[in-house]
Design a protein that fits this description.
Blueprint (H helix, E strand, L loop, with lengths): L2 E5 L4 H5 L2 H10 L4 E7 L14 E5 L3 H9 L5 E4 L4 H10 L4 E2 L4 H10 L9 H8 L33 E5 L11 H10 L3 E5 L5 H10 L4 E3 L6 H10 L3 E4 L2 H8 L4 E4 L16 E4 L23 H4 L4 H7 L3
Parallel strand pairs: 1-2, 1-4, 2-3, 4-5, 6-7, 6-9, 7-8, 9-10, 10-11
Helix pairs in contact: 3-4
Length: about 325
């Protein structure tokens, strides 16, 4: 094969989870050009990736995108998204794709009936299993995220002095995020300098926590790009994160991660891949997981998964710095 097209439109963390497949394709077919299709806002995630020849941005018009891609003459298409949009693109390209298995039925069964039939392995390894016909295999090197040239940062420029811990305080859905009172408890009990990163949605939490703990907390929410946040994580002692895109980027950087689990479950296969991590989870309840991806409210109204989770593993880790 001389040209291979890989499709993954979104989102940030899910794209990072496809990077071992891209690398494996290049290792198996070193002469091939590996092309990637993704939404325009995620195209920069592939910047600096040595295994990717070209990134094609989807800007809302599949017909136009397909017309452009047909001219490339791809020998194979790998559908790493497997949704209606990716199906339609493959149809427009006249290609029968190699596809991942998302185990959607098994995930829903775990949520609704608490019956776990999911393979006891990471999502990435499930991807490899479903793409056996491509004769690709995991090299055991984990995820990839390459900080683009010139976008590494110096912590001193952000007022960070000495050793520090990163807390990526956001996630896509509310039920995956530590409640504000528990955030206060975390800041109050943790030992050492705590640097908060997040987007504009997280900014109000960051501002309040910085106001409450001015000598301990540095709030960088909505102040750093993804690349700059990654650079700061790379230089941190360890990373605290929810089930989120920042967790996967931290895993790609081979950082030690303390993962706070709420509505979702590690058995879905989304835990940090090929890096050291500790799950911080409330094991005293039987209502989780309540969602395959998280939601904006607790179905039972109590949110005990994160309201009553013990933060002791995080505090203990901070005491070793």
């Amino acid at each position: 094969m001389n040209k291979i097209l890989c499709i993954r439109f979104s989102s940030l963390g899910d794209i990072i989870l496809t990077t071992p497949i891209i690398r494996a394709l290049k290792q198996r077919y070193p002469q091939a050009e590996i092309h990637v299709v993704t939404k325009q806002q995620y195209a920069n995630l592939w910047e600096g990736n040595p295994y990717v020849h070209q990134v094609h941005s989807y800007q809302g018009n599949l017909w136009k995108l397909a017309s452009k891609l047909r001219k490339e003459g791809f020998d194979a298409v790998v559908d790493l998204h497997k949704n209606v949009r990716s199906h339609l693109l493959c149809l427009l390209l006249g290609k029968i794709p190699y596809q991942i298995d998302k185990f959607t039925k098994e995930r829903k069964l775990l949520v609704k009936k608490k019956i776990n039939l999911l393979p006891k392995k990471h999502l990435v390894d499930r991807y490899f299993d479903s793409l056996k016909k491509l004769d690709i295999h995991s090299d055991g090197q984990g995820l990839d995220y390459f900080i683009p040239a010139g976008q590494s940062v110096n912590p001193i420029d952000f007022g960070i002095q000495g050793k520090y811990i990163i807390y990526a305080i956001g996630a896509q859905y509310v039920t995956k995020v530590l409640s504000y009172p528990k955030m206060i408890e975390l800041c109050e009990r943790i030992e050492g300098q705590l640097v908060l990163i997040g987007d504009n949605w997280d900014e109000h939490y960051g501002y309040r926590l910085k106001t409450l703990f001015p000598d301990k907390v540095i709030n960088l929410c909505n102040q750093t790009s993804v690349a700059a946040s990654a650079s700061l994580m790379q230089q941190a002692e360890f990373v605290i994160a929810h089930d989120s895109s920042m967790m996967h980027i931290a895993a790609a950087l081979k950082k030690k991660i303390l993962v706070l689990w709420g509505a979702t479950h590690s058995d879905f296969g989304f835990y940090p891949y090929q890096t050291e991590f500790t799950s911080v989870v409330n094991t005293q309840i039987n209502c989780r997981p309540c969602s395959t991806q998280g939601g904006n409210y607790c179905p039972l109204g109590h949110f005990d998964c994160l309201n009553k989770v013990s933060l002791d593993p995080i505090i203990s880790a901070s005491q070793t710095i």
